[in-house]
Amino acid sequence: MSVAGIRQAACIGGGVIGAGWAARLAWHGIDVTVCDPHPEAERRVRTVIENAERALTQLWGGPVSERGAVNFTDDIEIAVKDADIIQESAPENMAVKHAILAEVDRYASAEALVCTSTSGLRPTELQSVMERPGRFLVGHPFNPVYLLPLVEVCGGDRTDSESIERAMAVYRALGMQPLHVRTEIDGFLADRLMEALWREALWLVNDDVATVAEVDDAIRYGAGLRWAMMGTFMTYRIAGGEGGMRHFISQFGPALQWPWTKLTDVPEMTDALIDKIAGQSDIQADGADVRDLERQRDDGLVAILQALKPHGIGAGAVVAAQERARVGARAAETPDLSRAQPLRLHTAQVLPGWTDYNGHMTEYRYLQVFGDAADALFAAIGVDAAYLDAGHSYYTVESHLRHLAEASAGEALHVETQLLSHDAKRLHVFHRLIGSDGGTPVATAEQMYLHVNTESGRTCPAPAEVMDRLQTLSAAHVGLPWPDGAGRSVGLSKNRT
Amino acid sequence: MSVAGIRQAACIGGGVIGAGWAARLAWHGIDVTVCDPHPEAERRVRTVIENAERALTQLWGGPVSERGAVNFTDDIEIAVKDADIIQESAPENMAVKHAILAEVDRYASAEALVCTSTSGLRPTELQSVMERPGRFLVGHPFNPVYLLPLVEVCGGDRTDSESIERAMAVYRALGMQPLHVRTEIDGFLADRLMEALWREALWLVNDDVATVAEVDDAIRYGAGLRWAMMGTFMTYRIAGGEGGMRHFISQFGPALQWPWTKLTDVPEMTDALIDKIAGQSDIQADGADVRDLERQRDDGLVAILQALKPHGIGAGAVVAAQERARVGARAAETPDLSRAQPLRLHTAQVLPGWTDYNGHMTEYRYLQVFGDAADALFAAIGVDAAYLDAGHSYYTVESHLRHLAEASAGEALHVETQLLSHDAKRLHVFHRLIGSDGGTPVATAEQMYLHVNTESGRTCPAPAEVMDRLQTLSAAHVGLPWPDGAGRSVGLSKNRT
Fold first, then answer.
1. Per the CB < 8 Å rule, is A264 touching B269?
2. Hey, are the CB atoms on B239 and A143 less than 8 Å from each other?
3. What is the CATH number of the domain that holds B137?
4. In the predicted model, what is the mean pLDDT of chain A?
5. What is the pLDDT of residues A391-422, one digit of tens each?
6. How many structural domains is chain B composed of?
7. Overall pTM > 0.80
8. Using the beta-carbon criterion (under 8 Å), do B224 and A220 form an inter-chain contact?
9. Residues in chain B closer than 8 A to A214 (CB atoms)
């Protein structure tokens, strides 16, 4: 699959960042070759990808197309020769990166983008060893690369502006939020901000004012919640009340001159300080290993991204835009409506927030999945986003749900949809929700939809092109057996076995 | 109402912080007197409370009990004389706070807690003017006070440890996360961390490296999403991969010595810099006024808090604990089951994330509200949390939903529940969802529930105490008219008017 012109990628370096890139690229259908000489590299990268797949499935419900393949090599030439983009994520060492970039430059095609994940080294110095420096730039991501949208893009003196544009388009197509750092400085923007906070945090621990857990609590129960959607300036503008930013600065600006931070010094990383931090960090982790912690982090990030999506705030807007693009890509696949079998238009997975205290899917989530299946049916008969925008839609007026078994956390589900009857205004449909065993339904939904003018809210006949597709589907489904459970009412005895 | 022994509170100072305290206290049923000499104080505080009510209703669905009254005065004696807790939120000026605290100290009862919202002044110096300094401490909250859980608690040299304990219990009962700052330093913990980041941000803008919007983007699309649930140390521990915190420090510790931050200096707040920041901030706000921005912020915070709740991560755990306490308080009110009218056990509000692109409540949210109404019914017949823990429950096996009108964003809804029939294993119930006009139902749900052993998943008879309550309810409901729409099946013509 091609994403913004990219079919094949090379990830040089298979650490946490390189593996995160591989996971994001493969999820978007791009084949990836990871190049890392470490004997454990493949195992480590596969572990990160496994974790990433879990989180990405929760975020998106499933991949929009077939995942790209992930291959391994320890030979840079093999990794880069067919790649459209090379993402270098080697250790933060100028000499190491120079050696790698010189070799990448030698073997990569002239059209390939060469990007480095460096969090602080300057691109002008990095590209000094390259013969084709115009295609080189910084694409600095944030951990976990497969979930966090931010990527800082920064060119060096010899970077072509066209390369910057191209890289930003690629990153956007990967569901990221590229931020063009227009002035080349050490550490770019985000790491300078994070480092400033981190230094202060180190002093608080060094001076025994607080433990690492207390410092973390001072962030995550307070300012951190705001930083997830608004940065520091917007937060302070609001804190200024009706007087805005100017009032805030006049009120709190003087406090900047107070000795509230350890401005002038950096704590020396003595063995004693390292022991203290590592020891307190162990207590804070309370026995959880890094995989447990990664899953907690990813669950939280997925939940935050999903929560911000309907509000279009911050990263929520990025997720919403990517979802629209995915829906568009799905809508392009027209299903065959002429086959004498129920349609299989919708798949879902039982997400972490969907289960009750028993670990079973909560009642109303069944109706959510059936509603999504109905949307897929509507799209298949031509009632898509453009159709809705034009002022017509199908509304559900009645549903009869039967719960026959339980769907469990993480279970993969699909819906089989059968048309029972229709006329110009009505659609009568039966959905079966099938669990991961593929057998008898977990639940069924019999639903009636009315074709409406969304402005007036009144029913109206569906147009000929929708009726034509419905006729095709009806002809295919008319001979299917009447579903067990359809046409029944809720009753004390007659409806339950 | 009494919350951790508090019935009456005084808020000295009606700015953004004081008003936020008033909103949080009143929401929890505590009467508040706000003392502020400014002629606009009452209007400003009422505006903040109105915004707060909107956000708190979204977060909690509704208040657990009657809201406390909010009164206004410009006389400290009147404000504090009957107060169990006094929260001072005057400007950050030692002389101003000294004058206020001396007066508060004179008129407050000996048992009252006297707390200051100072974000950085030391309690030992603040309490030096008090005759009863043992009851004085810092309770430093974060904006918006009514949503963010963090409150830093810090005593001075003469503060009683019992006062610290008492204040922490009060703040916890108000749904907050108190963090005891054990070492008295200027700026405590959170503001030192925020200030460090803010200084660096000011330099980036001062030096024209980035605009305020770019700085904010560098936070909210990346590290900010992590800070909403994990602080800086836990984030870096995970970044260390399998090697953990020690590996992270060995890899990134040296970078701390690089000149990535403007360590040694503070930008001078010249008129030119203030103009630059305020101007860029105006562009970033794009015409939105502070109320618009507050609503955006609050919508996002509510969404994040709700999203983190099922995962029990960070602030989500605080919200979950508060919700359990609220459910416990509600369960203590036993409804009268003997009245010949449908039960009114559940209210809800159409939350921002519940609506589709038309601004109408999404289909599956109707079933969510009916499910919550069913839980309220179960609690009323004795099937509460303890009952579930003991291994029995009612499971929904069938639902018939009819959509008769639309519920809109923000609309207040309630459910009326009628028992149609029951036996030892089955409950047959009809719910009507009533909109804010109080008239004909927006939707109805006919549901069948089975009494089950949750371990085996099999049906079993309900015990005598549940059957007794059901018998009372049945005797009261047997004479009610059969609901329009009950007992029907989904059909092309016979079920729709």
1. no
2. yes
3. 3.40.50.720
4. 86
5. 999 999 999 999 999 898 778 899 999 999 99
6. 3
7. no
8. no
9. 179, 189
Q: Is A448's CB within 8 Å of B491's CB?
A: yes
CB distance A266–B263 less than 8 Å?
yes
B14 in the same domain as B45: yes
- Bigger pLDDT: B109 vs A16: B109
The answer to whether residues A158 and A254 belong to one domain is no
The reply to whether A164 and A196 lie within a common domain is no
Q: How much is the pLDDT for B327? A: 63
| Domain stop point among B142, B171, B188 | B188
Domain that holds residue B251: 191-287
Look at residue B195 and tell me if it is in a domain: yes
- Across the interface, whether the CB atoms of B198 and A237 are under 8 A apart is answered no
Q: Distance, in angstroms, between A33 CA and closest chain B CA?
A: 21
| B45 is a domain residue | yes
A and B: number of Cβ contacts within 8 A: 540
Give the pLDDT score at A1: 63
User: Which of B231, B239, B448 minimises the CB distance to A217?
Assistant: B231
Q: Residue B264 has what pLDDT?
A: 46
**Helical spans, DSSP H, in A336-411:** 363-380, 385-389
Of residues B44, B265, B400, nearest to A489 (C-beta) = B400
Q: Which residues of B touch A263 (CB under 8 A)?
A: 199, 263-266
Give the pLDDT band (50/70/90) at residue A494.
very low
Which of B221, B362, B490 minimises the CB distance to A149?
A: B221
**pLDDT by residue (tens digit) across B2-34?**
788 899 999 999 998 999 999 999 998 899 999
The low-confidence residues of chain B, meaning pLDDT below 50, are: 262, 264, 492-497
Q: Is the pLDDT of residue A193 over 80?
A: yes
If asked whether residues B163 and B204 sit together in one domain, one would say no
Q: How far A82 CA lies from chain B's nearest CA (Å)?
A: 30
Instruction: Look at residue A463 in the predicted model and tell me its pLDDT.
Output: 95
CB-CB under 8 Å, A245 with B227: no
Cβ-nearest to A238 among B242, B290, B457? B290
pLDDT at A60 over 60: yes
Last residue of a domain, one of B188, B215, B232: B188
Contact B202 A256 (CB under 8 A): yes
Q: Could you tell me if A236 and A93 lie in one domain?
A: no
State the ipTM, two decimals: 0.74
**Tokens, residue B260:** 């990535």
Q: Which residues contact B429 (CB under 8 A, 6 or more apart)?
A: B374, B377, B417, B418, B419, B420, B446, B447, B448, B449
Taking an 8 Å cut-off on Cβ atoms, the answer to whether B143 and A239 are in contact is yes
- Tell me, yes or no, whether B178 and B216 share the same domain: no
Say if CB A397 and CB A374 are below 8 A apart. Answer: no
Say if residue A29 is in the same domain as residue A162: yes
Same domain, A213 and A362: no
